[in-house]
Design brief:
Layout lengths: L2 H4 L2 H29 L6 H31 L10 H26 L30 H102 L1
Helix pairs in contact: 2-3, 3-4
Main location: Golgi
Membrane topology: Single-pass type IV membrane protein
Organism: Cordyceps confragosa
Length: about 240
């Protein structure tokens, strides 16, 4: 939007009106819900909801009166204010639609109560929306505002989804890294098991050889001892015979 549009009082008030209308809708829905459930018209919850809605509609009516006065001032000679005929038509339609919605809420309120909502115009009624003609080519600014809000929500959802996808991607990469590390550790364990088997086999072979050597040495020493003892006995016998 250009700097000229940013300085346009109508556009500034228009934004306030649309924001207040967005806030008034849930209040209206809440009022209808409480009214349908309330057992008596004097219910405190119903009175509080009605008061909140009346306050919101009153503020909306004040701002809408400013928009009406602005449209009335520029519709006779739009070019003098730097506006095109299409822009004036768009403003007429905006005033008509917002005013109609506010009047519908007011009528719903007055269908159950006798008090009326006071507006900035001073006469207790909003300006008649039908006082402004609507050209077929006029742009629906309210619809554009709603579309922008939906686009903002979609962009926010896309950002959240991107964050979720990024987190899932990071988790998947971490899982892949852990899987590779486990595979490497499994391969290392296989190598260690193979080496341990080889070393165990060699140890068993060495122990067998050592036991064989020990047995052989034991047999040889025993034979020597026996032969020595026999020799000693023979010598003793010979000595006994001689003596």
């Amino acid at each position: 939007m250009s700097s000229t549009n940013e300085e346009d009082p109508f556009l500034q008030v228009q934004q306030d009106v649309l924001t207040q209308l967005t806030s008034a809708r849930p209040l209206f829905a809440s009022y209808l819900r409480i009214r349908s459930l309330a057992s008596a018209a004097s219910s405190p919850e119903l009175a509080s909801a009605r008061a909140d809605l009346e306050t919101s509609l009153s503020a909306l009516a004040e701002d809408l009166s400013d928009l009406v006065a602005s449209v009335q001032a520029v519709e006779s000679d739009p070019s003098a204010y730097g506006l095109s005929a299409d822009e004036v038509s768009r403003r007429r339609r905006l005033v008509q639609e917002v005013g109609g919605e506010i009047e519908d809420m007011r009528e719903e309120l007055q269908s159950k109560i006798t008090t009326t909502t006071t507006t900035a115009a001073g006469d207790g009624h909003l300006p008649d929306p039908s006082a402004f003609a609507m050209d077929d080519g006029g742009e629906d600014n309210y619809a554009e505002f709603e579309q922008q809000q939906q686009l903002e929500m979609m962009r926010d959802q896309d950002q959240h989804l991107d964050g979720v996808f990024q987190t899932v991607g990071n988790l998947r990469r971490q899982a892949d890294d852990m899987g590779r590390e486990l595979e490497e550790q499994r391969e290392m364990l296989d190598v260690v098991d193979t080496v341990a088997d080889r070393v165990g086999g060699r140890l068993q072979t060495g122990m067998g050889k050592l036991q064989t050597v020990i047995r052989r040495n034991e047999d040889r020493y025993s034979s020597c001892c026996i032969a020595l003892l026999i020799f000693v006995l023979i010598m003793l016998l010979v000595l006994l015979l001689i003596l």
